[in-house]
Amino acid sequence: MTFAISTPPVTSTALSARASTRGLTASTGATAQPLQGFPRQIMRFCTVIAALACVGTALASVPNVSKMNGSISIGPNQQAGNVSTVNGSITLGEASTAASLTTVNGAIRLASSGRISGPVSTVNGSITLERSTDVAGRVSSVNGAIRLHAAHVRGGIKTASHDIDIGANSRVEDGILVQKRTSSWWDRWIRDWFPETDPPPRIVIGPGAVVSGTLKFERDVKLYVSDSATIGAVQGATAIVYSGDQPPG
Fold first, then answer.
1. Quick one: CA dihedral 19, 21, 24, 26, positive or negative?
2. Are 163 and 144 in contact (CB under 8 A)?
3. 184 with 166: CB under 8 angstroms?
4. Which of 40, 112, 141, 174 makes an SS bond possible with 156, Cβ 3.0 to 4.6 Å?
5. DSSP 3-state assignment of 165?
6. Is 114:136 a contact under the CB 8 Å cutoff?
7. How many CA atoms lie within 13 A of 85 on its CB side?
8. Which residues are 15's β-sheet partners?
9. Nearest Cα to 110, choosing from 137, 71, 138, 149?
10. Are 100 and 85 in contact (CB under 8 A)?
């Protein structure tokens, strides 16, 4: 296909304008710059602004869930922001995501393939992470067992007075911390005279599990490590190596 391009005749006015332009350039020493790239930069800037607006809208559409009294249950394949309650348990459905899970008096359970971008914590309650769950932050409970079933925790695990079960093929990064329990003189007196009321936490690292970082214990524990598990340095405890699926006892 051929296009015919017509050139408008050059008038005396156009010649005068060109001469004036040449004279201006010569007198100022400046060189006229083309503006061909300017509209393209504007378009790129607008595209970036529009993309950021879309991201902001998407983030704003993920709601936080908060209660004072009562349990919270997030269904499967759902998205949530920060999920918190004071008196109640929290359940995250299969393949659902959240920013964080926090409760004071209640258990926390993540169904398979759940994803948490922040911490998971409770004071009085257990924490259970099912198969293929992933927690980017720390998992912590003061008075409650922590159990992993082929799960992944990237921010470490912390507790003070309860058991930890790192199940088979689970992965924990940033180590394990069992803190020294703080309590009143009355509680200490009870434990000194009746030690059976406060048995040492039982820490189990299952077959094929990997715990990187330091395993630090500020109180007495019973540490069982599978002969096929991989762990980092241990402080404050002596590991009891076992074979098979479960430790003795």
1. negative
2. no
3. no
4. 174
5. strand
6. no
7. 19
8. none
9. 149
10. no
* Residue matched to tokens 């008038």: 11
Residue type, 110: L
Distance of CA 220 to the CA centre of its chain: 30
Closest to 98 (Cα-Cα) out of 73, 62, 146: 62
**207 DSSP assignment:** T
Per the structure block, which two tokens stand in for 7? Answer: 């050139």
pLDDT tens sequence for the chain (249 residues): 333 434 444 444 443 434 343 433 333 344 444 445 545 555 554 454 455 444 444 445 689 999 999 999 999 999 999 999 999 999 999 999 999 999 999 999 999 999 999 999 999 999 999 999 999 999 999 999 999 999 999 999 999 889 999 999 999 999 999 998 766 666 666 556 666 556 899 999 999 999 999 999 999 999 999 999 999 999 999 999 999 999 987
Name the token pair of 142.
Answer: 């003061």
